[in-house]
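quick one, 992 residues, struct below
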Amino acid sequence: MNHSFRSRLFFVCFLVGSLLSLTVGWAQAQSGTVKGAVVDSVSRKPLLEASVSLLLARDSSLVTFAITDGEGQFVFKNIAEGQYRVLVTYVGYRGASRRVSVTKAEPVGNAGTLELLAQSQTLTEVSVQGEKAPMAVKGDTLEFNAGSFKTQPNAQVEDLLKKLPGIQVDRDGTITAQGQTVKKVLVDGKPFFGDDPKMATRNLPADIIDKVQLMDQLSEQSAFSGVDDGDRSKTINITTKKDKRKGTFGQQSLAVGPKPGDDARYSAKATLNRFSNGQQMSILGMANNINQQGFTAQDLGLGNNFGGSGQGSGGNSGSGSFVRNGGGGGSGNGNGQVGNNAITKSWAGGMNYRNSIGKKIDLAGSYNISNTNTLTNQSSRRENVLPSLGTSGTTTRTDSTFVRNQTNGSENSNTNSRVNLRLDYRLDSLTTIRVIPNLSWLGSSYMNESQARTVNSAGRTTNTSNTNYNSTGDGFNGNNSLFLFRKFRKVGRTFSVNWNVAMNNQDNEGINKSFTQSTTPLSTTTGASSTPTTSDSLYSQTINQQNNQRTRSMTNTINVSYTEPLSMRQTLEFHYNLSNNHNESNRAVTDFNETTGQYDRVNALLSNNFINTYMTNRGGLTWQTKRLKYTYALGLDGQQASLQSDNLSRETNLNRTFTNLLPNALFTYNFAKNTTFRFNYRTRVNAPSVNQLQPVSINTNPLNIQLGNEALQPEYSHNLSFNFNRFDPTTFRNLFASINASRTDNKIVNSTAFGPSGEQTTRPVNTDGYYTVSSFLVLGRALRFQEQRVNLNLNTNLTYNRGTSFVNERPNLAQNWLIGQGLSLNTNLDDKLDLNLSGNISLQSAKYSLQPQQNTTYLNQTGTLDLYYQLPLRFTFTTNVTFNHYGGASGSYNQSFTLLNMALSRQLFKQKQGELRLQAFDLLNQNRSVVRNVTDTYVEEVQSRVLNRYFTLSFVYNLRNFGAGVTPPSNNRFMRPGGRDGQGDRGFRRNG
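---
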């Protein structure tokens, strides 16, 4: 039994055993009942739908949650033996609590009748403060009380989100809620460093958070008019505690560690936040060479246009190609490792500011600058199984196979500056002006070296290549939205105008050098001729060129909307959209002149000056009806679009006009206040990009030539979505199901032609018959295990893609399937132990009509264990274990490895605001990156150099200064009420 198999067997058995023990233990231990009733203290009338929380008496951590019925009664079943507190809260009343116990002798804990005192009545003895329910459903918003979900000392917001039902956080910091990716994280309802979710989740402490609100945020226009346009984005809003809105807080850390034979590892980070009621200011800085990022890196695509450089080369032909990636897991301490297939150094700094100026102006803005330097070393094996190459003379070539082995090394450096602003100016109670500018500047440098060798099915070498590509570039990306919102005296009548201007300017200069040998002459579109080499009957081609790419893009869009209420329930919206997208692309390529020693010989085949303008006029109306239980909207738009392409270099132009009807429909039904069904149907037209239209060759890889096609037509797509969302606050059970389907006509796909030596030329073309269906199911609930709550989440996903591309001008129908099943458990077994378990298995299959030899099926399995344990003498132990297994058709791809990270920490100072930490990453030294790319023309396996074992010693200091003194870090759980006996029998705590 080899090591990888033993590791895999051990981890699977451990995971399954843990799940079984939790399930069995839960089933055996839960046998008791807690019941009671809630009434008004004066009228003695029962209170309907009061929030009732069952808490552990020893630390007030949440066990379960319920609401009272029509008689004001509540009951908790399947409760383990132990001591509990029943906490009751109700809008307009002061909370109350009572202690109960469940034992073998008395399995029913009777809380009796709890009397709630109305807020209008005052207590003369002390000022009081009530406790909050752990969770609430408010319309489309799911609200979590952060204090009900325990986190470890000095945790970040990201650690808190991992505890919430229905929310998952990946290793790279991506947040998924109810099966959808969270696009925005707001702080007190306002942006925090723009729309980058990681800036808030990885740079703010969890112990200042009061509530976490999960919602589907409407577009700016829909939120104002009340007419749902179907444009929603999954958003999290974190609200801070009132007593934490005035003070200074932050975190400073420094970590260093030796790395034999390599650079020393280091990581430094500092954040400082100053909140003063409505005014907030945050400053942060960070630097490291261990693949950590507290921000989302932005790359405008400058410099890195080296086609066919290994991973991800060749592009997606629209047939639903699969990409599978593994390795490079997280550090187990919330560090968020990134760069699974590379080694990245990064630094960043920035400032965020928000304030209200008087009663009319709200201002929020941020600036940040970041730099990433990424080193990539890869080796890849690509297999092309090709259909007939056509006829040459009287001989018909049959299907052939080419295997390409390549090594690739690159260094990519990006420096990005971003400015984000949001200004609201209220002219009066009915009129508001909103300005949202976002600006970004990027400087980039890129260096790539690669060597490749291609052999045919007979084992004979058909080509070899050595390529060196260097480039530098800079770019500007700007977007500004100006809104005018106007309400009228008649309720429901509104008028709004939105003017959006978007700019994207890029300048890139590169040097392309390559030497290629092949058994047949290569295509002349490379701009260099093939010269026969008589010694070995090979043709050689040398390229030494300089290319300058200048791209300018500007889009002006005006949206006008007017809503008129037809009745209390019905609204009619009239809207009009005018958009003009103007693109200019000037590519100048010059060959090296050995006589002058300069790049002064113009290459007309590869140079081109191209202008493209896409203008749309769209108008229509939407009729919306709102009832108590349901809402529906029907709309129809008409759009006329014109596409004008001017090829200044060839002195040709194309003018085309397209007319489309764009229907849409929306239906929402609320079965209950926590159960919703939503149906959405949308149509849209997508124009081809200027890079797809420009009819010029990109030859940075002479064996993979990229061409444009100025005859492309816009895509027309139909999109259907079905969403069902249910949350039961009494049991913490949540269910989210979604089905999304789309059909696209004139889909832009790749047409790839192969030469006899294995070289390829790819150009975009239009085709019909593209379908995609995806579904997602999330099930979550809270279990009980020996007086401890365990959050269980199951997620299932299924995706099917069907599309046609072209290989050697022959249609190739591709059908791709993906099915995955995931499971996660997280719990605090006691005050000292925090445990999280997760696992995932996915099966992927790809079938091709033209090349059945390339059909493939493979399996991917992962399992993760996160553990935190509080040791004596203020020591803490943290570990993260990630197991990966990749199974495929190729023996080299069937790999298993385990990534083990550990950390030992010692809390320092009186308030535990300091921490000394010894950390080990990849203790078993098994970390690796394995990638498989499956497309309609090839199957490729890529292995990359990744970050391996290292050790660091770090010091962390947490600053907490609110009001009169320093507040110690909180464990972020319910505070014990402080009544006279310290037990809080009435649910109150003293202020001060």
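The longest strand covers residues 538-565.
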